[in-house]
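[Structure tokenization] protein backbone as discrete codes

[Encoding] learned vocabulary of local backbone shapes

[Begin record] amino acids and matching fold tokens:

___
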Amino acid sequence: MELTSQLAERANEVLLEGKWIAGTNIKSQIIDLDWKQATTKVDSLNTIANLVFHINYYISGVADVLDGGKLDIKDKFSFDAPQINSEQEWKKRVEKFCADSERFVDLIEKMNDKDLFQPFVDEKYGNLIRNIDAILEHSYYHFGQIVLIKKLLQKKDQ
């Protein structure tokens, strides 16, 4: 199996359809939440809505680069999520996350293994594989937070 196929499979597992490593994925954890659950603050933790925005901020930004665009994202803006005030706004955020994740997976699948070792925008950012791998690790990190926050919210509702 090509390296790009393996990376695309890993991305798909954590973001959209996987069940192998964590037994679930981000999409399955957020799709059934309503906007009030998604925006409920638990102690000093981020809300699920903010985490979804944050994860997607990087997925979308890196996908733009993989698609031939510029690197327009900056870490300092990665939590600048617009406030969610309705079910419709929450559903739009979930839909955007899913669409951007599908695009990200598709772009990785279309890459050639040799491309993975090319610089990511600039040599100072390392190569493409390093950046794709960082997106995956970052997604798993926040995915764990989403799962825990969701459990805390469910416990609170009992």
